[in-house]
Amino acid sequence: MQQQNSDRGTLPVVFKEESSIPDNYKITEIHQREYLLNGELVPWNGPVTNIYSPVCIPTANGFEKKLLGSIPNTTPKESLEALDAAVAAYDNGLGEWPTMSVEGRIKCMQKFVYLMIQQRELVIKLLMWEIGKTLADATKEFDRTVDYINFTIDALKDLDRESSHFQQAEGTIAQIRRAPLGVVLSMGPFNYPLNEIFTTLIPALIMGNTILFKLPKYGVLCHYPLLNAFKEAFPKGTVNTLYGKGSEIISPIMESGKVNVLAFIGSSKVANGLKKLHPKVNRLRAILSLDAKNAAIVTKHADIDVAVNECILGALSFNGQRCTALKLIFVQREVAAVFTEKLAAAVSAMKPGLPWEAGVRITPLPEDNKPAYLKACIDDAVSKGAKVMNVNGGFQEGSFVFPAVVYPVNDQMRLYHEEQFGPVVPIVPFDSIDEPVAYQVNASHGMQVSIFSEDAKEVASLIDPFVNLVSRVNINCQAQRSPDVFPFTGRKDSAEGTLSVFDALRSFSIRSLVAAKLTESNKSLLNTIVRDHDSNFLSTDYIF
Ligand code: G3H
Q: Which pTM value belongs to this model?
C-alpha cells in the first residue's frame, strides 16, 4: 500500500507565495455592489458574502484561501422583486419579449454574444481563481459557451424556416410554431458555472421566455462582467439575477406558483424539494440534469492503453468534478492487475499545481468540505480491504487533494455507491459481465456508461442492455456531454428532459398553432395578414 494523506512524498509544492504568481494571472479583488433587476444594475448597500478562491496562500497561520471579493447577499424580498420583474416582462405572454419576432430575438442575442466576447479574458481568469479550473479548461468553457450561443442561433433559424409555411389537412389550414412557456428559473452548478447555466438560460431566453437566474455558490463573480451585456442586449425584466442562499431565496419564488419552468443542474434531492414547493405541479415544467455515477467497464478484450488513457480523462478531468465523470471502473479480473498498475502509474505522473501553470492537470478543490469527505470515503474503503494503489494517492494539503486510485472496491464500500465528485478513482474487479450490468440495473441513476473492448460481439452484447439502462453508451472512450449538438439526458434520478443545442429549444417552448377552415374568405384573410406583416407569429418570412 502506498502512503496516504501523510507526507507529500515526491509531489511538488502546490501553494506558493502570492508574489510568485505571474502578473497576467494576478487578480484584483472584485466587490460587487449591484445586481441585475428589471433592466437596471441596482445598487446594493445590504450585507455581502465574501468569495474565496480554492487557491491558498501560505501565511504565518498556515494556508489561507485567497479572498477574491464579495457579492450581494440578497434576501427573499429582492428575490420576489426579481420574480415580479420577470412576470411583468412576460406579461402572460403579451410582453415585448415573448411577442417579439424570432428575427428580433436573434438580433438581441447577437448583441449579447458580441458584448460577452469583450469580457473573455476576465471571465476566464475568474473561472481559474473561483473554481480552480485550469487555464486550458477555463478557456474551453468560455469558448464552448460562445459556440453554444452561436449554434443555438443557427438552430433557431432552422426551426423557424421549417415553420415558415402553412400546412393543410382535412380541410384545415394551419401554421405551427413553437411559443414560449413563461418565467424560467435557471440554476446551475459550480463545476461549469458559466456553461451549464447558459445551456439552459440561452435557449430559454431566445425562445421568448423571461429569466430568473440563481448564481452558483462557487463561480459567481465570473458572471459579474456579463451583467451589463444582459442589460444592454435585452428588454427590461427579461433577465434578472438572484444571489444568496438557495434555501432562503428560492423557496418563496417556487411557492408563488409563478415559475413556469425549473431549469436545474445539481442534485436530485434539491430538485425534488424545489418541485414540491410549487403549488400547481401541472403548470411546472422541469428540465433537470442531476445525479450520476457513470461506470466504465473494461473487459479482458480491451486495449488496455486506450482504456487507461480514457479512464484517466473520464475520471480526473477537472479533478473528477463533472457530472459526466467516470466514477466507478469495473475491470475483468484477468486484466485487473495490469490495468490498475498502468492506471496508478499514469495518475501518479499527473502534474498538480495552480490553474495557470503549464501542463497542470490536478488543481485545488473549491468545496470546503470536499477534502474531508474524500478522505472519509477512502478510509472507509481501506478499512474494508481496499488499498490506495498510486504513489501520493489521497495526499491532502489545504484545499488540494492528489487523486487516489482505490482497489479492490466492492459493494460494501461507500465508493461503490456515492457520487464522489472529486479525485478518487475506485476500481471494482469482476468475474462475470452480469456484475456491472447488475450495478447499473440497481443504481438510482442512469446517465452514461463507457465500454472498453475490441471484441465486436462482446460490445454488441453490452450495447443492447445498456442503451435501455443509461442514455449514452460510449465505446472505447470516456463519458462526456459534448459535442453539444448531441442529446444530453439520463434515466431514473439522472435527468428530466433533454438538452442539446436543438433539443433545448424544444424543451423551453410549446407548440402553438393558428388554424382555420380552408375557405376562400379565410385564405384571403390569412394572405392579407402575411402580406402586410401584421403578425410576428403568422408569417412566411424566411430568416437568412
Ligand atoms: O458536469 C457536467 C457537464 O455537463 C459535463 O460536460 O462532459 O463536456 O465535461 P462535459
A: 0.96
